[in-house]
Write a structure and sequence with these properties.
By secondary structure, the protein is mainly beta. The protein has two helices and ten strands; from the N terminus they run αβββββαβββββ. 23% of the residues are buried. This is YceI family protein.
């Protein structure tokens, strides 16, 4: 039994190497979102008492990554507005409605980068345009690069990022409630793994 467990551990460690954070070691080109290893959660203050937290279940993204010149990289991300998920199906329907996300008329929330700024060895600020409920405004993702590796399981190189985005919901006409009921600031947290478009 111990021999079988040792063999299983050996096989697993052979499939995934430790991630490296030096982007120059990664290949340039197009990367696609690994949807099984990505999430978008959001938080908003509720009555000033807590940070109400929920998520979106359907998202996609495309990254054109230039490790030699990270500032020249490009990011496009899309969230399906109707995939909002709070754990309360009735409230989900309310959020999909016209007073909130208006998912029928504006089914997608999108972010397209316009400029990338390197702020540290593994951090950056992705400036871009956020479109939500038909309104487009400048926005910035505060991003951390977790590293990259080659996975034999996926037969592709993989890279990972975390990012934070803060917006004012009133800028996008989201939500109609008396002042003080929920906060104006919405904090979005994104965790994303990308895979090289072509298997290696």
């Amino acid at each position: 039994m111990r021999a079988l467990l040792a063999l299983a551990c050996l096989m697993l460690t052979a499939c995934v190497s430790a991630p490296g954070t030096d982007p120059v070691r990664l290949p340039a080109g197009e990367w696609e979102l690994d949807r099984e290893h990505a999430s978008a959660t959001w938080r908003v203050r509720h009555l000033g008492l807590s940070w109400y937290t929920a998520r979106f279940d359907e998202l996609d993204a495309r990254l054109i990554f230039d490790p030699a010149n990270p500032e020249a990289s490009e990011l496009t991300a899309i969230i399906e507005a109707a995939s909002v998920s709070t754990g309360d199906t009735d409230f989900d329907e309310t959020l999909r409605g016209g007073a909130w996300l208006d998912a029928d008329r504006h089914p997608q929330i999108s972010f397209r980068s316009t400029r990338i700024e390197v702020t540290g060895e593994t951090t950056g600020r992705i400036h871009g345009e956020l479109t939500l409920k038909g309104v487009t405004r400048p926005a910035a993702l505060e991003t951390e690069f977790y590293g990259g590796l080659f996975s034999l399981l996926a037969r592709r190189r993989a890279i990972g990022f975390g990012a934070d985005l803060v917006i004012n919901r009133n800028d996008f006409n989201v939500g109609r409630l008396p002042p003080g009921f929920i906060g104006d600031e919405v904090r979005v947290r994104i965790e994303a793994e990308f895979l090289r478009t072509a298997p290696e």
